[in-house]
Amino acid sequence: MFTKEDLLSINSRKELLELAKKKKIKLKKAINRAKYEDELRLLQIELAHLQNHIEKHQLRVAILFEGRDAAGKGGSIKRFVEHLNPHTSGVVALTKPTVVEKGQWYFQRYIEVLPNRGEIKFFDRSWYNRAVVEPVMGFCTPVQYKTFMAQVPNFEHMLYEDGIHIIKFWFDITKDEQKLRFDGRKNNPLKEWKFSPVDQKSQELWEENTKYKEKMFTNTHTAFCPWIIVETNDKFTARLESLRHVLSQFEYEGKGKSGANLHTDPNVVYRYFRKSKNLEL
């Protein structure tokens, strides 16, 4: 990495290239990262404007982040919330249900953390745990799964009718890229905590996960609450495009004044039906 002294000593493009070669710095990668940081900052400014709009007009917004392990859900959520007012935003990442919660209606604990008026909530996984993870891992019975799949469209329609804006993201990753990220976690002492026994089984149960994922899309992709696919092999692009998609769903005061590019890339973020047959091949 260049130091402050390095940059002050450079007087020409040639000197910059020579120094980069000497220090074994890949300039293209550094330039792309700088562009990403600039775009991210502008989109976060737009998101702050959107949050003000949500507060002012007392809207309720719930954004669900679903996807396979290591697809980049947590990293994207972090970029969404890092500059928002924490009093009217928050991340929901529920742990496994307690004994009491297991005896309640499945959706009850999620209802308790839905956004109030003027709030935006980000769900790091959601009630859709029961659509894929739980049946694949044996954490629910076939009857519980069947009941959930029958109830969830009606549940979401009630939320929609009550005025809650729901955005459902599926972060899509290929099997090879998932393995690369798992290996990176295992070999990085700062990321080891992210790797769990469930992650270990993700590669082994890839096809089973795919089967349940497709059933989920078929039964829960609706006009009032569609699934939005985000291709995440390039996690930096995925973060920017998911931000753009959320911003595109609202008209708010000051929209576009930051100069951010607010046009989504249809090859990265799109509704489920558009490329469903090509997902994760």
UniProtKB/TrEMBL annotation:
GO terms for biological process: phosphorus metabolic process. InterPro entries: P-loop_NTPase, Polyphosphate_phosphotransfera, PPK2-related, PPK2_PA0141. It comes from the Bacteria. This is ADP/GDP-polyphosphate phosphotransferase. Residues 13-60 form a coiled coil. It comes from Cecembia lonarensis (strain CCUG 58316 / KCTC 22772 / LW9). Belongs to the polyphosphate kinase 2 (PPK2) family. Class I subfamily. It holds the Pfam family PPK2. Homotetramer. It is an enzyme of class 2 (transferase). Residues 32-255 form the Polyphosphate kinase-2-related domain. Uses inorganic polyphosphate (polyP) as a donor to convert GDP to GTP or ADP to ATP. Its EC number is 2.7.4.-. Keywords: Coiled coil, Kinase, Transferase. GO terms for molecular function: polyphosphate kinase activity.
